[in-house]
Amino acid sequence: MIYPPSDVPAADEIDIEALRKKYAAEREKRMRGDGQRQYLITENDYADSYEIDPHMPVRPREPLAADIEVAILGAGWTGILAGVHLRNAGITNFRHIEHGGDFGGVWYWNRYPGIQCDNDAYCYLPLLEETGYMPSKKWVDGAEIQQHCQRVARQFELYDGALFHTRITALRWDEALHRWRIATNRGDDIRARFVIMCGGPLNRPKLPGIAGIESFKGKLFHTARWDYEYTGGSWTDPTLDKLADKRVAIIGTGASAIQAIPYLGRYAKQLYVLQRTPPSVDQRPNLPTDQNWAASLKPGWQKARQMNFQHGAIEGLAPGEADMIGDVWTEITRNLAAELEAEGWPQLSLEEYLTRREMMDFRVMERLRRRVDSIVKDKTTAEALKPWFGMNCKRPLSNNDYYATFNRPNVTLFDVSATKGVEQITAHGFVHGGREYEIDALICASGFEVTSDLDRRWAIKTIEGRDGVSLYDHWADGYRTLHGAMTHGFPNQFFTGYIQGGFFATTIEQFSRQGFHIAQIIKQAQDKGLTSLEPSEAAQDAWVKEIRATAIDISKLQLECPPSYFNNDGDTSQKRWYLGESYGPGWAAFEKLVEDWRSAGELEGLIVAARD
Predict the structure, then answer these.
(1) Which of 40, 260, 364, 589 sits CB 3.0–4.6 Å from 207 for a disulfide?
(2) What is the pLDDT of residue 7?
(3) Cα 125 from chain centroid (whole Å)
(4) CA–CA separation, 458 and 168 (whole Å)
(5) Whether 92 contacts 137, CB under 8 Å
(6) Is 203 exposed, middle or buried (0-12, 13-18, 19+ CB in 10 A)?
(7) Closest CA relative to residue 212, chosen from 423, 518, 452, 520
(8) What is the β-pairing status of strands 168-174 and 179-184?
(9) Is 176 exposed, middle or buried (0-12, 13-18, 19+ CB in 10 A)?
């Protein structure tokens, strides 16, 4: 059965050509030529925004000199799952090296008020069946997610070798040892046979490089380093009572901001929301998990649900396939499937299907704009909060309290699109429309270095492979890998994330499958007595050619969207590929391809060196 379509406007209520012009005009208002250069690098004068841990004190320890089999760089979900797959493969000599003070990654650092998962937790949280854990609700709180990170780490004995509060400063391949030499800010010299890069896409906060920000004398922090000492409250009890006499400004209206803003509006004396591009924000009916439903689930239910999410969010529902997710992430596909079912599933060409899907996109976005009007009382404010872009341009969000916050007398929205960002920061406030507004605190909800240059994003100064070649130089003109996992000239180094491979709607499952693939390669290398392996240049080049020949062209979408991390803040240069290159035939085809490659047991396309 297909759910009925949501309450979207009828097709004859939508003027597509008028909306195209409106979308283009709104995009142009926000375009600027500096791309990622509009953000500060979180080092030197701004190192506190990245280096200091407000959640846990850094404990002194002696530098470590050690030889290990595998180093996992990062202990967020990607690193946790890499460790799980290594242990399941019988590989136990590994260590996690992590900047934070515990497992969790972004879920360790992000503790701002109101933080929740912003898509279906039954899909997002991994290993639910393996751990016997069921999320408390559909969109779970951040503390619950980090507790699950810890649960998995304990169950799979990952704590034993973990090095927390440790940041990588250099990676260098030592040809004589056939190992990676890993230097850290704690003085460590770790020599690892294999290295798995698990930094994750939400690794390093980015700070807006607004003129004058260095002169601000009030309190300044990023949402990823929330200061409860200043605001009052805590991660699990965000009663921000210390803001009662404070004037606060928050920059940004993305996924973090829409969750924190209702709390800031509730407690601050005055809140200014500085918005460049409004997000789309749907309702969030976040009921407790139905225990009868949970008890009825059969083994394999989570993988089935994750595949259903893939269909609903990306690939399309098959005739008769239910949408198990039932929220804004799958709404366009769900609505279109319901209409096609009512029509008897007519045969459509790809072009006809995409035309129908585009129309539904316009209708869903119009529904979301009308939601703003139904909640926000001031018409000027409501108009400024409306999202004028296609659904895939920005992450779809949901929150029950965000729009209502702008009905509070102490909350003011400033649309800074006309100046393509905040005009200026002063010693005591910010400038908007030529007028200075004094504030006590400035909070940056400006996101993470998702698609910026790799040296910024990974925050590792030096990564040198064979003959001292820099990985950053090696990939200067585009990713060059085999299956998105390895690259020529960098033996025994493995990559995760959005590189060159299959992309999955449930990001953590995608990264988990990458970890499984890597663990199996390392296991085969051990079983064959190999000291190093890397793709041949020919195999690497063949994969790059294959992935680009089959790629789905998304350049039109990127060029029509307002600036965001999806298009590297509107950067139209070749570096748009930093978001990753997806295998065109899809997730299932990619998974079969790499499974067949592994099953053959030949490590085809790899140059290998065996022990003497």
Answers:
(1) 40
(2) 87
(3) 14
(4) 9
(5) no
(6) buried
(7) 423
(8) antiparallel
(9) exposed
- Residues 492 and 194 sit within 8 Å (Cβ to Cβ): yes
Quick one: pLDDT band at residue 454, thresholds 50, 70, 90?
confident
How far apart CA 574 and CA 563 sit, in angstroms, is 16
Burial of 43 (0-12, 13-18, 19+ CB in 10 A): middle
Using a 10 angstrom Cβ sphere, with 0-12 exposed, 13-18 middle and 19 or more buried, the burial of residue 346 is: exposed
Tokens of 439: 């504030």
Return the CATH architecture of domain 65-204+451-610: 3-Layer(bba) Sandwich (3.50)
Would you say the CATH fold of 65-204+451-610 matches that of 38-60+207-279+394-447? yes
Q: What pLDDT does residue 407 have?
A: 98
User: What's the token pair of residue 335?
Assistant: 């609505």
User: Rounded CA gap, 317 and 308, in Å?
Assistant: 8
Alpha helix (H) ranges present in 376-506? 379-384, 402-405, 454-458, 471-474
Q: Where are the domains of the chain?
A: 1-30+304-393, 38-60+207-279+394-447, 65-204+451-610
* Residue 280 near residue 237 (C-beta atoms within 8 A): no
Contacting residues for 404 by C-beta, under 8 A, at least 6 apart: 262, 375, 376
For 25-39, 67-81, 430-444, which range has the lowest pLDDT when averaged over its residues? Answer: 25-39
pLDDT digits (tens, 9 = 90+) for 57-88: 999 999 999 999 999 999 999 999 999 999 99
**For the domain with range 38-60+207-279+394-447, which CATH number is right: 2.40.30.10, 3.50.50.60, 2.40.10.410, 3.10.120.10?**
3.50.50.60
Strands 429-432 and 424-425: antiparallel
Structure tokens belonging to residue 415: 């649309």
Residue 32, Cβ neighbours under 10 Å: how many?
14
Measured CA angle at 108 (ends 103, 111), to 5 deg: 160
| Span 353-371, average pLDDT | 96
Largest Cα separation within the chain, whole Å, is 76
Contacts of 291 (CB under 8 A, 6+ apart): none
Question: Where does residue 230 rank: exposed (0-12), middle (13-18), buried (19+ CB within 10 A)?
Answer: middle
* β-bridge pairing 39-40 and 207-208: antiparallel
Record the tokens describing residue 484, joined without a space.
Answer: 């998105």
Taking the CB of residue 367, how many other CB atoms lie within 10 A of it? Answer: 18
3-state secondary structure 490-536: CCCEEECCCCEECCCCCHHHHHHHHHHHHHHHHHHHHHCCEEEEEEC
Whether the pLDDT of residue 45 is over 70: the answer is: no
Identify residue 4 by its one-letter amino acid code. Answer: P
C-alpha torsion sign, points 245, 250, 256, 258: positive
Helix axes 587-600, 507-527, angle to 10 degrees: 10
Map tokens 């995409």 to a residue: 354
**b/e sequence 434-445, b meaning 16+ C-beta within 10 Å:** eeebebbbbbbb
Alpha-carbon distance of 579 to 486, in angstroms, equals: 17
Tokens linked to 249: 């400004």
pTM, full prediction: 0.95
CA-to-CA distance for 345 and 470, rounded, in angstroms?
A: 53
User: What is the amino acid identity at position 37?
Assistant: R
